[in-house]
Amino acid sequence: MKISIWLIGFGLFFLSCQSPQNRNENENRDKVNTHGEVAVPENYPLRISQDTLFELTNSRGFISKVAVKLPDVSTKACILLLHGWNLPANQWCDSTEFCNKALAQGYALLIPDFKLCNYPMKIHPECLPKYRKYPDLPWIMDTLIPEITNKTGLLDPSCPNFVAGISTGGRGATLLAYYMPEMFSACASLSGDFDITAMADEFLYKAWFGEYEAFPERWKSECFAYDAVNFRVPFYIAHGKADAVSPWQQSQAMADSLKTHHPELPIRTYFPDSAAHDYNFWGKQTDGMLEFFREFW
Questions:
Q1: How far apart are CA 5 and CA 13, in angstroms?
Q2: CB neighbours (10 Å) of residue 192?
Q3: Does residue 145 sit within a domain?
Q4: I need a labelling partner for 254 at 20 to 30 A (CA). Which of 55, 124, 194, 267 fits?
Q5: In which domain, by residue range, is 253 found?
Q6: Is residue 36 one of the residues assigned to a domain?
């Protein structure tokens, strides 16, 4: 697998799971040079700097570019940000204050560009040819995430890691949290889909999975809504009731199901009447999401 890495800028950061509060003043002074840079040990997997970008290619030839944004302090917490279907990967950062505020609070950010990915568990024979090259969930979980950890030290399972997504990225975030509860301390979905069997006429799902009438069990296996009893990651769910793209009832039904099966699980919901499927709504979730994540750091 070909991995190309561009190192941009000069600030070097030591990303560890050690809490800043547990480091004494002398230890910090030893690590910081006169230019305010943090020294990286020789055995550290990769000397990454601000705005590092690297690429990973799957077996079908799709190149996933992953942007890394680091805060100005050494950190132990990371957020994996998943963009909406066919939306620019960095548009969440460009259109809202989420990334600026997250970085200011000490989070490292990982932003993969998955283009038209719909987070399938499998590339089925009925999947339209133009979609077959995009990443599937097993590749993301078994290849991309381990490579991120190996090359950057981020997404270490012993650290506080979070995953958040908008629209289709919200679907991806919840699936990753469902399948990798040991990796993620909390999850956030903004305007996402959950029970896709209730969206049998949705073109995107038919394009990836075939017609629902022909493959109902396949559709059920491609979402975790039928196994909410085994979902155990703290969850932030927000969905505007004026959403004309993804039905807000998807998020409401999932929140209700999780509360029924897991009354003890931390879940925070927000369903405003006038909010649509856009960055105006998603941007307004910034403070609430970061506040929720901080509870598990």
A1: 17
A2: 26
A3: yes
A4: 124
A5: 5-9+50-294
A6: no
In a domain, 15, yes or no: no
The reported pTM is 0.83
- Where residue 98 sits, what CATH number does that domain have? 3.40.50.1820
Q: Are 89 and 63 in contact (CB under 8 A)?
A: no
In a domain, 151, yes or no: yes
d(CA 176, CA 190): 15
User: What does the alpha-carbon distance between residue 114 and residue 55 come to, in Å, rounded to a whole number?
Assistant: 11
Contact predicate 159/145, CB 8 Å: no
With 0-12 CB in 10 A as exposed, 13-18 as middle and 19+ as buried, what is 26? exposed
Strands 52-57 and 77-82: unpaired
Q: What is the mean pLDDT of each run of 10 residues along the chain (297 residues)?
A: 36 40 31 30 43 85 94 86 96 97 95 96 96 97 94 89 97 96 97 95 96 96 89 97 96 94 96 97 98 95
What's the total number of domains in the chain?
Answer: 1
229 CA to centre of own chain:
22
Measure the CA–CA gap between 19 and 24, rounded to whole angstroms. 11
